[in-house]
Known about the structure:
Blueprint: E1 2-3, E2 12-15, E3 18-28, E4 36-43, E5 49-55, E6 59-60, E7 65-76, E8 79-84, E9 90-93, E10 109-115, E11 120-125, E12 129-137, E13 150-155, E14 160-164, E15 172-176, E16 182-186
Antiparallel strand pairs: 1-6, 2-3, 3-4, 4-5, 7-8, 7-10, 8-9, 10-11, 12-13, 12-15, 13-14, 15-16
Amino acid sequence: MASTSDISRGLIIKLDGSLYTIVEFGENKTARAAAKVWAKLKGVDNNRSIEKTWNSGDSIFPVRVERKYYQYLYKDDTGYNFMDNETFEQLAVQENMVDAPQFLKEGQEVSVLINTETELPMSVELPDKIVLKVTYSEPGVKGDTATRTLKQATVETGATVNVPLFVNEGELIRINTKSGDYVERVKE
């Protein structure tokens, strides 16, 4: 058990039977009343985002989480299948537990958050930025570069990304997995 003074960004807590990660937090102090601690919470085992306020010094219930690295293998009826890089044990998770499933590529390393109390996976996180090959893209029109015009491109995982006009088929591009945006072109 911990108190509100232990709150930090990224901490996972148990609240009303569900698990939430702290996205943002702060403290409100007034001259007359006791200090209050507020936090924006994002559901780990559900898709809810909530705000919660506690009195300063109240108890919170953090959950111990372990981060393990797995390799993505394939997708089938059971879900997305991953293999532990150390023990070679396999793990299947549902699509809603993967933060950006459209960018998963076979053989890619991901981190899996595991609840140490139940030994069950809570979420699968891709690296912040990944490099993928463009498999389809319309050719850019010469002279149409006065503004920051974007076009659609399909990458090797099947996902569609908006890219600048100069990106062509067969090139490698870096993508931000959190926002799904094009970052830069990568030289081979």
